[in-house]
Amino acid sequence: MTDTNSRFRTRFLSLCASLLCVFTTGCATKYTVDDGSPVDEKLLASIRLYGKAEQTVRPSIVKSAKLNDEDCDKQWELPFVVASSYDLPREERIAWVRGLQVDERLSIIAATPESGLKPGDKITEIDGDDDDPDEMFEELMELRDDGDEFTLTLSDWRKVKVKPVEVCRGHVEITKPKQENAQDYHWLKSTHAMSIFNHDLTEDEALWVVLWTQGLSEEAGARMKTYHYGMKTLKTTLTVASIASGVGAAANAASTAAAQYAASEAGKAAAQAAGKELAKYAAEQMADAARRKAIETAAKEIAKATAQEIAVGALRTAAIFKSSLGGISWVAGTGFYMADKWAFDRMAKLGADPLAAYSLHFKLASNLQADNAFVFDEERLAAMTKFAEETGIGDKAKLVLAGKDPYGAQVATESVDTSVALEVRPLDDTPPPAVAATETVNDATEAMSLAAAPEGAATVAVADATPADVSREPEKVLAEKP
Questions:
Q1: Rg (Cα) of the chain, in Å, rounded?
Q2: Fewer Cβ within 10 Å of end Cβ, the chain: N or C?
Q3: Check: CATH 2.30.42.10 for 31-168?
Q4: Model-level pTM?
């Protein structure tokens, strides 16, 4: 009883002090506010993308608890995500406030509707305790991993009870701002590139990301542990030498292949962009409506062919990415195909469309973004195609992989127009040059010859295949410190 009275008295005095501060000294602004100061716009965009990514996957993480899979190892998850700008430089603190309403306190940046929380909420106490944001975050993670219900007190004096949900092992993490493409794969969690969420993921695509991550932990976790503990404790010379040389060889080969292939893919993207714009300009200069329509149609054919060519080429980029991973992540890469199967088998159990795996692949691949785990290499795509055929959705999967929606409407991509149907070609079938489509347009040959990219045209940057070194320790979901 004495402890209870003491705690009540302390909180009462703290409240009185806070109110006195507000009404006498104006110190209610002790937390950072957006005063309109200039900030790093690239960082601001990255912060906003990070929030979008967390808001996209959090509902799917909670939804995955409905699997009730008795065979998988379990973890606990929270229905919300927090961040804090505690101890960051002033300019970065302002960027976090402007981008996601995050200040020095633990701030909610993503939450499910059922949680009773919303982005922008500030946590002041956890089970009646308040401390600095770092220590409060540690307490929050401990409560999550215990799985017990706890109470949050918010800055508006609301109290919200939180009950962690039990899911299959494999926390889904998103790389933080300033490390947009850093990735790491581990049996406890996988950290995915924030840049994946530059594209709007559907609910089913977000669920695929979550189930795939859990599947990687479940199916490839044993081999990751064998590698980790074998390297850390056994120190067997033969094992160390063979694994190290294998990783080194793969990384060196990947580096060389990436440099060569990057130039090729960048050229295709440049040709696509130049071809579309020049064809459009030529069409606008022609008075004949019929002729204009024909040239516009040809321009779309060019875009379509190039889109599929890029998507097919991305299969090789995906293989390069996987080979370039190091350490435990490299071992995890040898089990990516196992995660595909695990997730595919469980999508329908949650009422989701397994075609989301194929649409996410095409969405990323056709936008030259294959340096992640969700674009299949040739071997994985062959297996995924087989899964689709065995479950009766083979034809639909092929349509999705060709850039079309199997249910009628066209799949939207941000960089390619896919209004014209694409031919589904074998992976080893080299498509003709994009400008070849102009030969089918009568009286438009001269105009469409402009669609070829001029010599020396600027190329599009291709992501470095070398992975960032990301810590494998349990990661704080806090704003990055300098």
A1: 26
A2: N
A3: yes
A4: 0.69
